Amino acid sequence: MRIRDTGDLWWKNAVVYCLDVETYMDWNDDGVGDLAGLIQRIDHLAELGVTCLWLMPFYPTADRDDGYDISDYFGVDERLGDAGDVVELIRTARDRGIRVIADLVVNHTSDRHPWFRSARRSPDSPYRDFYVWRTDPPPDTSAEVVFPDKEDGIWTWDEQAQAWYRHRFYKHQPDLNTANPQVRDAIAKVAGYWAQVGMSGFRVDAVPFFLADAANDPHDEVERPHQFLQQLRTFLTRRVGDSILMGEVNLPYEEQVLFFGDHDGDGEHEGEELNLQFDFVLMQQMYLALARQDAGVLAAALEARPPIPHDAQWATFVRNHDELTLDKLSDDERQEVFDAFGPDEDMQLYGRGLRRRLPPMLDGDPRRIRMVYSLLFTLPGTPVLFYGEEIGMGENLAAEGRLAVRTPMQWTSGKNGGFSAAAPSKLSGPVVEGAFAPKHVNVASQRRDPDSLLSFVQLLARRYRECPELGWAERAEIVEQPHASVLAHRCTWQEASMVAVHNLGPHAVTVPLQLDDADETCRLVDLLVDDEHALDADGRAEIELDGYGYRWLRVVRPDSRRLL
C-alpha cells in the first residue's frame, strides 16, 4: 500500500448509513425524531460498523416533501433540535470514528423560502433572478415532470408574480436558476457554512437537474455546466481537504463518467467533480437478476462499468429513501421485476418503481435476504445502507407514496417500536404492521442474538473494512463458471485478492473455479465462516454452494501476512 496512492481517500472503503432524523429516535416523546435521540443511538451505528453517517434534510421546511422543500439552508428544523445539537452530533460521531455528511438540495427551494417570497413580489426584487420565469404560456411539458402522479407540467402560473415559474419537481418547489452567479455563490456559502460546522461533505440531490441552467448565458463566468460542479468541489476541498460530494446521478454509464470529471472517457480527471456516484444501473440489474434467479444481467452490468478516475468511487446500494426506481430497464424487464416483487398496483410508484423494502419483496426468506446483503458488500464500491436495513425492516403501504419506506425505526418490541412514547396519532409516520412489525423485527432482540440479521450485517461491515480490494479494485473480474444462477467475481488490488460467489437460485450447486494466477501453493480462505479450500496445480477448486448461498474467498499465497 503506497501512501501517495491512497492518501486520505476514506470514502473508497467507507460504510455509509442514511437516515432521516425525524423517523430515527424521538428523545423528548413528542412523536417526532430528534437530534438528541440520534445522538443517543450513535453507538448502535458504531457497533454496526458505520464510518459515514448521511443525514437526510434536517433544515427548516414547509414539510410538503419530507424535508426536501427547504425554507432556510442555514437553520435546523426546530422540531428536531438546534444548531448546537448538530455540533454535538458531529462531535459524538467523530468520537466513534464516524464522519457526518448532509443532503445538499440546491435544485429547488420551498416556495416559502424568503428568496422566493421576495422574488414573486416584484420583477425588481434582487431575488427575482434566483428562479426561472417566463411570461408567455408554456408548451405541454407533461413528459418532463419527475412525479407524473402529482404534476401535469413543469411550469406554474403565479398570480402575485404575474409570470410562470419552473419546477421540475413539485409546484411548491420552484427551481433555482444556477445560471445566475449569485445563486452559485449562495450555494457555495451553504456548503461552506456546514463544512465549517463540521460536516465531512454532502450527498448532492438531483445533480443533472441543478446543472441544467449553468452556463446558459454566453457572458456567464462558466463556459459549460460541469464547470459549476468543478468549482463547487474545488471550493469545498479548500475548506475541508478530505470532504466529499456524493451525487445522485441516475443516468447511463457513459453519461455518468462526465460527473466524475472524466470528459474524454479515459478514466482520468480533467476537472474534479463528484467523489462518489450511486450506481443506479447496477442496482436495477441486480433486481432483474433476482427476479430471474439468473446472474447474467448482473455480470454484464459489472463488466459494462466504465473506468473511473483513481480518486472516484461507485456507491452501491440495495435500497434508498426514494422509490426503488427501475427506469433504466426496458418495459418488459421492468414488468418482470414488478411481477416478482411488487405485483399489486399499490406497491408500484410513478409507473417506474416500487415503494417496498427488500425483506417483504423476498417474502422474508432469511437465506435470500442475507445473500443480497453479502452481494452488496462484495460489489466493488462503497456500500450505502438505508436505516433499518440492518434488522430487516419492512414497509407500510398505508403511508403515502415514498413514505412507505420511511417509517419509524424499530428499536424494541414495545410501543411504537421504542421510537417514541407519544400517542401513535402524533408520530411522524405510521409504524410497520404485520409480519415485519416491531414485535417481530427490532434492534433489541437482534443485538444479543449472534444468528440475527443485525449480527450478520455487522460481520459483513467488518470484513468489508478488512478487504481494501473491495473498495480499490479498478473493476470486478467475472470468473467463468457454468451455473446461470451464480455470480462469481474477483476483486484484486495490489497483494489483496478475493473471490465472491453468490447463488441467486434456490438449488444447491457445485461451482468450479479456476484462477489462472494461482497454483497448489495457494488456498482459498472463507472470510465469513471457518473454512478453506485447496487449489490444484492449475489453480482449480470446487466450491459447494447452498441455494441462495454465498462465499467470500480470500486468495492466500504462501508469503501472505494478512490476518484472516
From TrEMBL:
InterPro entries (alphabetical): Alpha_amylase, GH, GH13_cat_dom, Glyco_hydro_b, O16G_dom_2, SupH-like_C
Keyword set, alphabetical order: Carbohydrate metabolism, Glycosidase, Hydrolase
Known EC number: 3.2.1.1
Pfam families the record matches: Alpha-amylase, SupH-like_C
GO biological process per UniProt: carbohydrate metabolic process
Catalytic activity, reaction form: Endohydrolysis of (1->4)-alpha-D-glucosidic linkages in polysaccharides containing three or more (1->4)-alpha-linked D-glucose units
Record-given protein name: Alpha-amylase
